Amino acid sequence: MAKPLLKIQRYFRRKPVRFFSFILLYLTAGSLVFLHSGFVGDSGPGARGGRNAVVASEMGSRPSVSGARGLGIMSRVFKETRRSGRRYGPPWMKKAKQEGQETVRRGGDYTNNWNRALKGRSAKDVDNGRAKYFGCYTDDTQKRALRGVSFYDYKKMTVFRCQDNCAERGYMYAGLEFGAECYCGHKIQAPNASDSECNMECKGEKSNLCGGANRLSIYRLELSQESARRYGSAIFKGCFNRPDNVTLALPFSAVIQNMSVDKCVDMCTEREKTLAVLAGDRCHCGFPTSLFSLHEPEDEGMCLNRCHGEEFESCGNDEYFVAYQTQVQDNRCMDRHFLPIRAKQLVALASFPGAGNTWARHLIELATGFYTGSYYFDGSLYNKGFKGERDHWRSGRTICIKTHESGKKEIESFDSSVLMIRNPYKALMAEFNRKYGGHIGFASQAHWKGKEWPEFVKNYAPWWASHTLDWLNFGKIVHVVHFENVKRGLFSQLKGMVQFLGLKVSEDRLLCVEGQKDGNFKRSGLRKLEYDPYTPEMRANINELIRTVDSALRKRNMSGVPEEYMPR
Fold it and tell me: Where would you find the membrane-spanning parts of this chain (predicted)?
């Protein structure tokens, strides 16, 4: 027995051997402690039922985002994480979990669950002063809980961004799913689920939850004064003369007892039509078409006829119809593809930064059904559905190519161009916001009031003028479009752009684009500056640049810049 002990003693006398032996023992002990704590955590209350992962596979296409979701993603794995006692989100979530899961109701309209969803919750459940958390609800790819417009962003989705986009369009509800998807609607048409099932962090805001796998975190929105021409979430479109062929123009209709705007809008929404048209006690549903385009509104006094079900509403009559746009998404212009045959001619979509190039791409893609490309690569735009962003600009697979380049060599690389010009006062501010806040973000007050803004104007204002002049001088065939004119007369301006691109115009697609012209690329008006950032010296220099561009346009027998660019 003494000999083995003597051998061990001699072994540990060797300093290097002893050192490494102690390190090995230390690491082994640490590993055992770590593994032990992991098993204990899995069995505790924060382990979410002992599951380590939830696999959410897509069972077919998702209609509301069919144009943007085809990124080749066949399935997603959403890993759940163990959380500490602190739960991000509404403060009552933790209490609700301790009280147990709520009963799940099935079928019908669940909007009236308002009082039950807020039971036991305090006035602190207000998010940003514009929305209240409504609850966690189930969602189905075939039958959406919220059936208005939708969008997604797998990089920067936040609760506020989703709420803001839905509120700007007049919706009553905003819902987030999978941490990256946003759905809007005016009615919840699905059963509620346990709050613990809405457990995925927002992609752009780790401190908040954005739904779960087929689960929506829904917020009820406080609509702003901008919604004065809306009825709930339906948008008032005006009073219109009866179309020559009502059956063809508005294919579905029904007589409704005690007619009201709400009843007609609900009926057309259920039938997934974008237009709800009231004619006395009859409700018509359909889409904008050449037979009923909404381009020739009549005096609203012609439609004054009290609804039987609501004395303060007007329901039109047999000759003059009252039209509302429902929150159903018009899918007639959502399909987009690459060109079937590679184009031999390269068409530029040129603009100064901040002049609405991304918005123009959105309109062109919806109007033509083909993707647009880019001289650059912007991953954030690719993530938002611009698939042509990843193609090389010379690939020939896209209908036109975005570029902000100027200079003879770069311009002569293109065979023709659509040149979009915007009021420099607006364009400079938009680009400054993009530079310091992203495509739909905002620069901070520190940037506006610091040295960045004056330096930016000094460098970028001359570029606004030189960019336009270069394209007029070196461009082979140039079709000039003014941002402001597109906003005022989208149908005719977009029609001219489609014809310039050499494609046949589909009026139904253009009418579809009119109903969803903003896309997801419009900055909210909630953070407008409360003061004029331009100094008198800045204005004097910019006005001189405007006169130079105006003169160059007129010399080429083109219309000059719009009147609102500067005082005359």
Answer: 20-39
| Cα–Cα distances in angstroms (integers) from residue 86 to residues 78, 89, 115, 207, in the given order | 21, 10, 26, 11
Paired with 554 in beta bridges are none
Secondary structure (3-state) at 238: strand
508 — phi, psi (to 5°)?
-65, -40
pLDDT-derived band at 187 (thresholds 50, 70, 90) equals confident
Let me know the angle formed at the C-alpha of 172 by 171 and 175, rounded to the nearest 5 degrees. 85
User: pLDDT tens digits for 204-245?
Assistant: 888 899 999 999 999 988 754 444 355 666 888 889 999 999
Token pair 């339906």: residue: 234
Identify which of 74, 43, 37, 32 has the alpha carbon closest to the alpha carbon of residue 56.
74
C-alpha distance from residue 142 to each of 54, 55, 132, 147, 326 (Å): 20, 19, 27, 11, 20
3-state secondary structure of 420: strand
Closest CA to 247 of 213, 202, 212, 277: 277
Q: Count other C-beta atoms under 10 Å from residue 518's C-beta.
A: 13
- Helix 507-515 vs helix 357-368: angle between axes, to the nearest 10 degrees? 140
Tell me the DSSP string of 174-198.
EEEETTTEEEEESS--S-EE-GGG-
Strands 230-231 and 75-79: unpaired
Give the pLDDT confidence of 2-52 residue by residue, as tens digits: 666 666 666 556 656 666 666 777 777 766 655 444 333 333 333 333 333
- Report residue 387: phi and psi, to 5°: -65, -25
CB burial of 220-236 (b: ≥16 within 10 Å; e: otherwise) equals bbebeeebeebbbbbbb
Token pair for 206: 């780790």
Tokens 């330096």 belong to residue: 455
pTM for the structure as a whole: 0.60
DSSP assignment of 510-543, as one string?
Answer: HHHHHHT-STT----GGG--SS----HHHHHHHH
pLDDT tens by residue, 538-553: 999 999 999 999 999 9
Question: How far is residue 10 CA from its own chain's centroid?
Answer: 73
Spatial neighbors of 259 by CB under 8 A, at least 6 apart, are 278, 280, 281, 282, 283, 307, 308, 309, 315
Per-residue b/e over 525-541, b at no fewer than 16 CB within 10 Å?
eeeeeeeebbeeebeeb
Q: Which residue has the tokens 């803004």?
A: 453
DSSP secondary structure code for residue 393 in this structure: T
